Description:
Number of strands: 16
Largest sheet: 5 strands, antiparallel
Radius of gyration: 35 Å
Order of helices and strands: HEEEEEEEEEEEEEEEE
Structural class: alpha+beta
Oligomer: single chain
Number of helices: 1
Amino acid sequence: MRKILSLLLASTIACSAAACDFARGDDEIDTTATEENADVTTAPNEDLVQPESQGRYYKIETVGLEKHRYTIYTLDGGVALTEETDRPLTISMLGEHVVDICIGMGTGIAIHKYYDVTNNRFSQEYSYVAAATEHLVAYIGGESLNERKLMICDIFEPSNASLYKAYSPDFSPAMHNPIIDARFSEDEAYIDVAYYTERNPIRVTESFSVRALETNQ
């Protein structure tokens, strides 16, 4: 009887020890899993504001899904303008000191606004821009498809009569934007314009005077 009791006691002690070891193993596994989960759940979220494009006088940031914030800087680094848009946006430089802000409006239409860093001034908004330099902009204007003109003017002083020109190329009435390409000459004396003419579009290239006194209508 004494031997039986001794065997039962020894068996009980062994089982208790094994149970403790098993419990310790569970604790270690659970602790590791908890620590890993803690690393995942406490990881900081990425900042939603991310730089997308930047130059000396401008910066574009992504501030949300398909949303951008752009900032235009003055010559001394101050902020001239900051706005947000959910439309397609590109910003580039005309020469060294004119910022070209281009915002897409859909159906191939874009609005351009220019910033003169040297004189700290913004231009009016232009649509259907064909070409631009630091001083001049050429764009399509007119009340209807049949009355469209090629307009050329000073970007920041469009009423300057000495640079204001209005030509009437035979733009194709079948096309929303008939201009294929346009380039000012280096001295800005003329502009070469490739465009489509006639209802069944035919490509032609024509030169138009810019700084000469005469205006061809």
